[in-house]
């Protein structure tokens, strides 16, 4: 039977002074040995004994040099070394009782052990040891810990750059967890029909992001032609925000009466498609030789090293006065200048009118009425710091719409440069990433629908997109034929065929009802003067007729749609009955595919969306 020994209280009183500290474990022995409650209770009951009296089977007698010292003068290092050797021999010769980390015995089976009983001694008061420095014990513990860790196999450090003296801190500002979420702000957006919606946006949301959010919530067709308009009714100004502009930042420069509008703008990037229509040759000059091609014209505007210049006569309103003067004006990258001597462009004759760096370009809504403008083609260069003061606005007027469009487009290009081209290319790149076959642009709600064929006994899903599109067109024409045939046969339909043909178009977005000619022209101008932009409205002169308002070459034209009868049925025609249509939907479908008597095909329709 292996034997073991337990050391009682006198050992604890020998090496610790009365400082109120916890007993410290000896180097080489278990830390919980001295914390056992049995030994702590025996401290006051057992008299102190000399080191020589502790000899037993597991403890060899200490050297004679310990006996020569006085009882209170203990050589601590030598005593600890001797105790280490004794404990090692004890552990090698016997099985010790397992202890938990808190000094309590484990609950498993414990081997029988012979306890060394100390010699009997008369009860006397326990004698405390003299104050002894315990730094030596701590140093021995540190050395023992170092020897234990050094015996482990070496593991390479995966981050050696973090251990050098000059290494940066482990937690850099960028590596810390993100702070609180970006601040949110409520923005109120109005539509063309006067309805509004309050949208909660982030501080870093751009105009493009907000437009896409409104398109999604309104279930509109996302054809990359929607724009956010900055509208100032008290100043009579408005402009379309660029796609990269921050909405919250723009709103901070607006007055309380100002608001955002959500509308179509097909001409936002039209100058990238047809630049020759926007920049007349007589208005553009270059500092270097230019071949005048389509690509060269755009490169000269987008290249910051080139020096394009727009020149011509404009009506300029004097600051703080109501009078207008016709001056020769030239637009450069450095700003807008006017000549004080005729059409001279010498530096001594040029005077700065406005700087484009901290300004925005607006169009005048009612320049004649509000500012006594000489023409209807006015625009304005508004400093960003100005909110309500009309005296600091630089008001200008052109002779026609093409000239005004040229000036305003050149200001945008010279101010933003490549940012505009990137805004234009983002939808193009996104469109190129779509499927290889061409599909009509559909709204969000239509994306969940599939084409079905029920001509057989069981229905099937039409997977071919070309077949699905042709089936949709056939179905659209077939239901009108069925409704007309059923009414002729005397069915109980509430609508007569003639009545149906006169009301079916009212469900379409391109029909705007009873609006005036001026109102239709205003809507066309607001949504962009591009070729093929159109709308239909009721005729004011003929109650039974309709009017097609169409834009071509930045000019607005009106075509009257007259009703005609044939075999008791009512048809509609644009060319005095040569081409007849049963309703206006068929008429619009035809002229979207064929030019006919119109100057161009119908491409884009004006739309008003209720938010």
Name the features.
611 residues; alpha+beta; 13-stranded mixed β-sheet; five-stranded mixed β-sheet; 16 helices; 20 strands; 18% strand
The radius of gyration is 47 Å
| pLDDT < 50 stretches | 1-72, 93-127, 436-440, 442-446, 479-497
The main sheet comes to: 13 strands, mixed
Mean of the pLDDT scores? 74
Number of helices: 16
The protein's oligomeric status is single chain
The overall strand count is 20
Overall 3D form: extended
Task: State which percent range the strand residues make up.
Answer: 15-25%
- How much helical structure, as a percent, in the residues? 25-40%
| Class from helix and strand fractions | alpha+beta
Measured distance between first and last alpha carbons: 93 Å
Protein name: Growth factor receptor bound protein 10
Subcellular location: Cytoplasm
Pfam family, one: SH2
Region (Disordered): 18-67
The gist of it:
Residues 510-606 form the SH2 domain. The protein has 16 helices and 20 strands.
Write the layout of secondary structure elements.
Blueprint: H1 10-15, H2 37-41, H3 76-93, H4 135-150, E1 184-190, E2 196-202, H5 207-218, E3 226-232, E4 237-240, H6 247-251, E5 259-264, H7 270-273, H8 275-278, E6 284-285, H9 294-302, E7 309-317, E8 324-332, E9 335-339, E10 350-354, E11 359-364, H10 367-371, E12 378-383, E13 394-397, H11 401-416, H12 418-432, E14 452-453, E15 460-461, H13 465-488, H14 497-503, H15 517-526, E16 533-538, E17 546-552, E18 555-566, E19 569-573, H16 584-593, E20 604-605
Parallel strand pairs: 1-5, 16-20
Antiparallel strand pairs: 1-2, 3-4, 3-5, 4-11, 6-7, 7-8, 7-13, 8-9, 9-10, 11-12, 12-13, 14-15, 16-17, 17-18, 18-19
Main location: cytoplasm
Keywords: Cytoplasm, Phosphoprotein, SH2 domain
GO cellular component, one term: cytoplasm
